[in-house]
């Protein structure tokens, strides 16, 4: 089997899974509102996702380590995704939706991380760029947001389960053809976590970026409802995500040309500034097309921030503890920040509207950027004194 052939199933897995992911991220808030839930209740349901992720990632990570396989765990999770999604989309009432949603997210939340982990390991084995593989996830996300947005606009958001099952089934089919890798890392131990907790620069960095990641996750959850408040429909929501994720894919694909030219923290701070500008511009919007035009900033904010922050975290932690440190980073970015962003964002958009929500998100980003700037200056001074 040639190098290209061996990577094709993996690229198609990332394409298919992220195509399902965009359906949930882009249209689930509209679906839940159609079910009769208000903004606060939608926030509770969306908060279940990152809560389940915090609980499930160590479990699936441990099983992957114990049985030395990523492919096997991926297959189990995708089968669980298909079965639990059918149950989840049949639920009525907040409590039933919350309980079914937890089980659904328990299976779905690890798939992205496991797919990225497999992509990174395969890229290292074949000596190819990780970005050329991971870009297919962004392409799948963008394609799905555009196509499914048009479909749901022509039909009804209650039918979102059918394109979800289509892409989920495609993910299962291609997953059977994946080339697995041996997982050599040991399971996470409490002593490893305690060693990282004592790493003050690492903990401070995670705390400061939370102000920015909370704003990012809140926007992910409620941009669809905000566009609807401004007069948009499912089609425009899909187009907005398409524009954003295409810009993200471009940033990932071209990272080798711009990344590492300056100190990693400079890129993190730059992304924080751009997040602040982006959210305040969104807060001032009075037309959904204004938001769509500004969605290209998604790549400049999330794309730059994610690459730079992950790289900086890798520098801060010992090599033997990198898997644990990365897990803590993911838990903050997609777990803790997701819970806070969903709960606070739901209450704000329900009581004050989307404009007020984005003004608060802009303030959060500005605070986080300021803290990171001070953190960077203090780190430089500490290094200078040590010389």
UniProtKB/TrEMBL annotation:
Keyword tags: Cell inner membrane, Cell membrane, Membrane, Transmembrane, Transmembrane helix, Transport
PROSITE patterns in the record: MFS
Domain Major facilitator superfamily (MFS) profile: 142-387
Membrane topology: Multi-pass membrane protein
Cellular compartment(s): Cell inner membrane
One Pfam family cited in the UniProt record for this chain: MFS_1_like
Record field: transmembrane: 12-32, 44-63, 70-89, 95-114, 135-153, 159-178, 199-216, 236-255, 262-282, 288-307, 327-349, 355-375
Name of the molecule in the record: MFS transporter
Species this chain originates from: Lentibacillus juripiscarius
Lineage per the UniProt record: Bacteria, Bacillati, Bacillota, Bacilli, Bacillales
């Amino acid at each position: 089997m040639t190098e290209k052939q061996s990577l094709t199933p993996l690229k198609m897995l990332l394409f298919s899974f992220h195509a399902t992911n965009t359906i949930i991220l882009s249209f689930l808030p509209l679906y839940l509102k159609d079910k009769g839930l208000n903004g606060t209740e939608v926030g509770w349901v969306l908060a279940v996702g990152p809560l389940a992720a915090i609980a499930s990632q160590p479990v699936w990570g441990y099983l992957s380590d114990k049985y030395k396989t990523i492919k096997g765990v991926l297959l189990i999770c995708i089968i669980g995704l298909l079965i639990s999604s059918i149950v989840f989309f049949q639920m009525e009432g907040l409590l039933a939706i919350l309980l079914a949603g937890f089980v659904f997210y328990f299976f779905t939340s690890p798939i992205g991380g496991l797919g990225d982990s497999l992509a990174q390991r395969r890229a290292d084995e074949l000596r190819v760029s990780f970005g050329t593989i991971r870009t297919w996830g962004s392409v799948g996300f963008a394609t799905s947001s555009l196509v499914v947005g048009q479909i749901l606009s022509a039909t009804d958001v209650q039918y979102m389960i059918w394109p979800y099952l289509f892409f989920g089934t495609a993910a299962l089919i291609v997953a059977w053809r994946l080339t697995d890798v041996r997982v050599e890392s040991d399971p996470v131990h409490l002593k490893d976590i305690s060693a990282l907790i004592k790493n003050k620069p690492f903990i401070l960095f995670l705390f400061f970026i939370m102000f920015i990641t909370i704003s990012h996750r809140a926007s992910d959850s409620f941009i669809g409802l905000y566009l609807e408040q401004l007069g948009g429909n499912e089609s425009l929501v899909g187009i907005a995500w398409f524009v954003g994720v295409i810009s993200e894919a471009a940033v990932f694909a071209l990272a080798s040309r711009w990344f590492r030219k300056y100190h990693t923290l400079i890129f993190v701070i730059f992304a924080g500034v751009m997040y602040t500008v982006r959210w305040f511009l969104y807060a001032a919007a009075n037309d959904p097309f204004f938001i769509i035009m500004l969605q290209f900033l998604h790549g400049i904010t999330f794309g730059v921030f994610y690459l730079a922050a992950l790289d900086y975290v890798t520098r801060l932690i010992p090599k033997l503890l990198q898997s644990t440190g990365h897990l803590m980073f993911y838990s903050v970015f997609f777990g803790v920040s997701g819970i806070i962003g969903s709960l606070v964002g739901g209450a704000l958009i329900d009581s004050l509207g989307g404009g007020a929500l984005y003004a608060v998100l802009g303030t959060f980003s500005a605070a986080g950027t300021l803290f990171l700037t001070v953190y960077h200056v203090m780190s430089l001074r500490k290094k200078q004194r040590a010389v």
